[in-house]
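Structure (tokenized):
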């Protein structure tokens, strides 16, 4: 009888130990932790394209300064020339006041045009540097040897006249020529490196157009 009572008794509660079974908080934590990582990846992938679009936008907003430049040049050069010529012909110095006003107005127009152009070029340079940084483009390294040769040759050409031999002037002239050639070589190498960088940039822009 005792055994039957034990079998027919109410079921005992089952205790779940800590750590057993799924924890809702842990699942939520995992889901929340993936969101910032995804956003970060999308931001990195979208960086170069955003920089390219900004560069194109800046390139398309080049200010038109031809009219201001031409008008400023006319007011500074052409108008005063004719006014001075008129004064010399007639002997009346009345137009000289108008001549000064014309020069001032022309200089103001030229200054405004130059300011607009310089501001645009600065903005374009920053946009271009951002594109180069985003896509990892760099100009090829330029050899410093011509630069060193230029410095040594200039130093020798300056000191050569004080050398204690008769052909010191010839040494000075040759050193100056070597310095000139070294400078030209360095300038040419620097130009070629920038040309290669610009070509690679255009390839990146073209590839971006094809992907769109």
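Design, position by position:
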């Amino acid at each position: 009888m005792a055994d039957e009572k034990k079998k027919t008794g109410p079921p005992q509660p089952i205790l779940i130990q800590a750590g057993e079974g799924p924890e809702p908080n842990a699942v939520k934590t995992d889901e929340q932790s993936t969101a910032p990582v995804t956003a970060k990846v999308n931001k990195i992938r979208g960086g170069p394209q955003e920089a390219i679009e900004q560069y194109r936008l800046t390139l398309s907003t080049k200010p038109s300064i031809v009219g201001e430049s031409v008008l400023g040049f006319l007011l500074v050069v052409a108008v005063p020339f004719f006014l001075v010529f008129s004064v010399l012909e007639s002997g009346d110095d009345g137009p000289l006041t108008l001549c000064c006003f014309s020069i001032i107005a022309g200089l103001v127009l030229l200054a405004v045009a130059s300011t607009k152009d310089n501001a645009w070029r600065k903005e374009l340079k920053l946009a271009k540097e951002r594109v180069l940084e985003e896509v990892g483009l760099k100009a090829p390294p330029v050899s410093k040897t011509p630069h060193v040769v230029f410095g040594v040759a200039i130093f020798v050409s300056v000191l050569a006249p004080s050398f204690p031999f008769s052909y010191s002037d010839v040494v000075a002239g040759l050193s100056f020529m070597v310095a000139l050639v070294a400078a030209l070589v360095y300038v040419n190498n620097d130009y070629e490196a920038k040309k290669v960088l610009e070509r690679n940039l255009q390839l990146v822009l073209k590839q971006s157009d094809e992907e769109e």
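Reviewer-requested clarification: The radius of gyration is 38 Å. Residues 138-202 form one domain.
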